[in-house]
Fold these 3 entries.
Entry 1:
Amino acid sequence: MQALKLCWIMLILAGFVHACGVRAAFQDTPETPWGHTATPAPTPRATSFVQGIASWYCRAGVSVCHSAYPPESMSAAACTDLRAAIGPGWRGKVVNVDNRRGTVIRVMLVDWCASTDKLIDLYASAFSAIAPLSLGVSRVEVSW
């Protein structure tokens, strides 16, 4: 019983380093005080996401773009539900947009969109990477 308590104490003190044969957030490499080795675990995948409709805007000669970002940039406007989901730090955040058919793009949120029907308004250059512009809209999952 005492060995088990010691094992748990070592596990807690080691910050979930592979102690007592348990492996968690670290893998072998640099030495720890217990003679084990540790490296940080791989960067976790995005844990927050929302699903909804993406549309497009900002096509040179067709529609208005944000003045600081050229039409060919991978930029987007966050609509009401996306801004609410991300919170106050949404502007400038880079998000993944997954068309749920095998294509994921990364865009920076540089503008806002007042729509409550759509989730994200992509620049035409970004939208065309996940669906033809002629569709106008596409179902997506946005994660960060």
Note: Residues 3-34 have pLDDT under 50 and may be disordered.
Entry 2:
Amino acid sequence: MTVAQKREATAYLRAELSLSQRRACQVVRLHRSTSRYAKQRGEDKELRVRLRFWAARRPRWGYRLLHWQLTEEGLAVNRKKVLRLYREEGLRIRRRRRKHVAAAPREKLIAPTRENERWSMDFVSDELADGRALRVLNAVDDFTRECLGNEVDRSLPAERVTALLDRIAKERGLPKTIVMDNGPEFASKELHRWAYRKHVTLHFIDPGKPTQNAFIESLNGTLREECLNAEVFESVEDARIKIERWRRRYNTRRPHSSLGNLPPAEFARRARAERPRSRGRCPRTPVREREEEVRGDRSTPEGAHSKWARNGEHFRPKESRPSRPGPTWCWRASTVMWR
């Protein structure tokens, strides 16, 4: 029996059988001070109003994000209390139950250690109000979790993928590696030529393993819950405006649990401030660093591919490579390596 049920049983024994409080508490095994305890909890009307307000504004936020929003407004409230009110107000989000699959060994994705070290890209699909298909291409920085940019249209060929990357590069430079799946836009010659010119490594995940590209999958899931499923797009231009507005709010205002409840832009600003600066010499530009990494020491066969040899990846020996310049494919590592 719960404490509330024991209180009701004590009251029943005292009213119907005229037992004393001491005797009734002995029968139900309840302490007398617990039986006499009266609730002193307030109604929390103001807190409930603010909780319902933000739940209506952010329908896909759970109680943790709502608690963070309330504390940002200056309300000193415990997280467990927010959870209790959240349940009493009937604000719980319905989520689909995942199908249980057999456990299998998974490769751990090594997290980057600094900004612009690795990006991830992927597509997400939706539709307009009239039923026409809509595609969104997103790019995310795996370290800061910033949504770097997106491309929205009914069709997005490989040329639009490279155009998005060039647009992002003008603002923050290029990464060493871009992680992506094996879609036709990413496996196209247009993107491979772009990566060769820019000295960027394209890393393809294994087919049917989206967990190997977890950072962009997380971003796309948040985009679908908070924007695509909550908005109605009348046209492609309307979709671009609303998705770009969501992207700016995601980067600057939405807290990220893996970043200590900091927005990605704020986390990136603090990471740049804490980064140690070099003294006594001018640091090399990122482009020069990437060129030297790709070239290596050409005097020895091992040094010609020192970057790939350090990572334990396999490549064709120098004498077996084709005479004309082009990419060297390594299907075991799912990586394109350029001469």
Note: The domain at 118-268 is CATH 3.30.420.10 (Nucleotidyltransferase; domain 5).
Entry 3:
Amino acid sequence: MPDINWSLYLNYLNLAKAFGVICLTVIIEEIVRRFIFKKGTSAPIPVIDSKNESSAVGNINNVLITVDGRNVKNETGYVKMPSDLSQKVDIQYLKEKTNILVIDDKDFKQIDQLRTLGWKNIRKIDDLNNVDGEESNWANVILIDVQGVGGSYSKKNGGIHLTRALRDRYGDSKWLVLYSADRSYGMDVFSEAGAHDYIPKNTKPLEIERKIIKGAQMLSV
């Protein structure tokens, strides 16, 4: 029986083990890349902190982002978000960017509640005499009372005539919502006025918010 060089034998055995570990690592990494991460992404899908929904804009998992449709962008590129997270980001973005103008000669108490919901940019004026003025140019969504405003256009139901003037001036680039405490008006009146939507004056803030979100999304604010 020939002599065995045990030192050489052990060296070959160690090399074989090392080669096997390398192969196994490569196989595992390929499985992870193909089946756990989406193809072409270099990072896991970000997850919003449920305790702080505002983290959906500005910082997700400590990574600075910017909103771009239904993606977020970080230093590694675009990462596709789940639809529920994307929707939260979109709504938070709208709350930061949408300019809301309320035209009413009386109090509109829901303004404070809308601010509490996170809408940052809300202005209220008693009337609008010039559709080319700074306030109407600034606004994306305009809420207009039927009565008590638009006096330069009509002494009766001036808000309807003011809405018509705004629609003629801006077309669909402003989202116009008429409202009234008087429920006797029919939808045909508001449609003829050029309003995009209508609400009763005592509408709950969450329903008003829904109308604002609809308008802001249609305008692609």
Note: The mean pLDDT is 76.
